[in-house]
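Subject: Protein record for review, amino acid sequence with backbone structure tokens
Category: Structural biology, sequence-to-fold work with a learned token vocabulary.
Format: Residues in single-letter code; tokens as whole numbers, each standing for a residue.
Body of memo: The sequence and its backbone structure tokens, given next.
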Amino acid sequence: MAVQTVATGVKAVRRHRGRAAALAVVPAAVALLVTAAAGPAPASAAEGKGPDVVAREAYFLPPAEAEPGDGLTYDPALVPAGAGAEVVEVARNGKTRIWLSLTGLLPDRTYGAHVHTRPCGSSPDEAGPHYQNKPAPVQPSTDPAYANPENEAWLDVTTGPRGSAESSAPKDWRFRAGQARSVVIHEHATMRQPGEAGVAGAWLACLSVPFE
């Protein structure tokens, strides 16, 4: 099993929140997620081959306060500084499953979330359009033939009373190398109708993830 883990932003989080503990390198649930996503082991497992796993964990901070690798919040009123995110990707046998876990958001609220094509930047649109398994001829796309949860990775969440939420997206495909690089949190649930498909309002926050 190939595992790539990233945990960053400890100094910035300590400075902003006064936290003394470092971020965990791999979320505790990764082993369970691998088992759930991988399914029956193929013959190659006997040769030591297993699923590819990417685990990424960070806290959101405003771009002016963030250090390299931190998550970025562009709207602290809706994604407060110090809110946390974990993303886990498990890929095997041509399939992928992505998990998103968020903490510290506003309670009882729905947020849109998608995998985007570029890393996060100081301005929201630097993350580029949504990743699409079958790319639309025109980008960004609001054509539901392309902008749909089967062709893209949608991870919309609804928070509970403490501002936490989780979601997952199973896919019958794998990301193309170097073309999926972040998860963006949006203002509202993702729309599906023609002309608005894939739209989820303002770009509130972003976490760079080196998807396999």
